[in-house]
């Protein structure tokens, strides 16, 4: 049996205004598995992800690779999880592409040369090694997304959270990104309203509804059960670490 990299049991959370955002969520993610996280805006998806990162701490039990998510374990937890944001400009802030991708490994305490080596390897993985000396703001949306992904990969996470990863991308850039993501060995959670994208990367889905996981199983079965075809009724709420 595959080993679970995420285990969540009876997770509950109320916002300060009293709103019950999560009402007893149970979830697991196995090593190497890719799961699509579906549901309407306000259904609890973002609140759930923030708990995985330790940015919110509710009632219940959340474990990453067996380590309980709590204040004293946050450094360990965040070394195991990488996040690719919906807007790459939220992740790119250094003067050059290489400096941006090197930033994370340096923060892990790696020696500068080892950090640069990790950055170069990650840029090669996403096909952006030729752009290492460029300023991120000179890149196209698709190039920015791949550089942001390189920054995640340079941290060598076991789990990657993806928040609407194809937003703002033209078809060729989307195709290039999907090809890279499909080849990554890490376990992945993909929050998306785009069922076509989910089908390219995941076979399992969970469906959030009013703070609970109302469905968990085969992607196509969940899509049909909840009539969840490409939803364009409202813009997705971006994941924020602020």
In summary, what is this structure?
This protein has 242 residues and is an alpha/beta fold.
Characterization of the model:
By secondary structure, the protein is an alpha/beta fold. It has one domain (4-225): Rossmann fold. It is 33% helix and 26% strand. The protein is built from eight helices and ten strands. The strands form two sheets. Strands 6-7-8-3-9-10 form a six-stranded mixed beta sheet, with helices on both faces. Helix 3 packs across helix 4, helix 3 (97-107) packs parallel to helix 5 (141-153) and helix 5 (141-153) packs parallel to helix 6 (171-183). The chain is globular and about 45 Å long. The model has no long low-confidence stretch (mean pLDDT 90).
List the helices and strands and how they pair.
Blueprint lengths: L3 E11 L5 E11 L3 E6 L5 H8 L6 E6 L2 E2 L5 H7 E4 L12 H11 L4 H14 L15 H13 L5 E5 L7 H13 L3 E5 L3 H7 L2 E6 L2 E7 H7 L17
Parallel strand pairs: 3-8, 3-9, 6-7, 7-8
Antiparallel strand pairs: 1-2, 1-4, 4-5, 9-10
Helix pairs in contact: 3-4, 3-5, 4-5, 5-6
CATH class: Alpha Beta
Fourth-level CATH superfamily: P-loop containing nucleotide triphosphate hydrolases
Structural class: alpha/beta
> Could you give the distance between the termini?
37 Å
Ranges with pLDDT <50 over ≥5 residues?
A: none
The best one-word shape is globular
**How are the strands ordered across the major sheet?**
6-7-8-3-9-10
Mean pLDDT: 90
What are its keywords?
242 residues; alpha/beta; Rossmann fold; 6-stranded mixed beta sheet; 4-stranded antiparallel beta sheet; 8 helices; globular
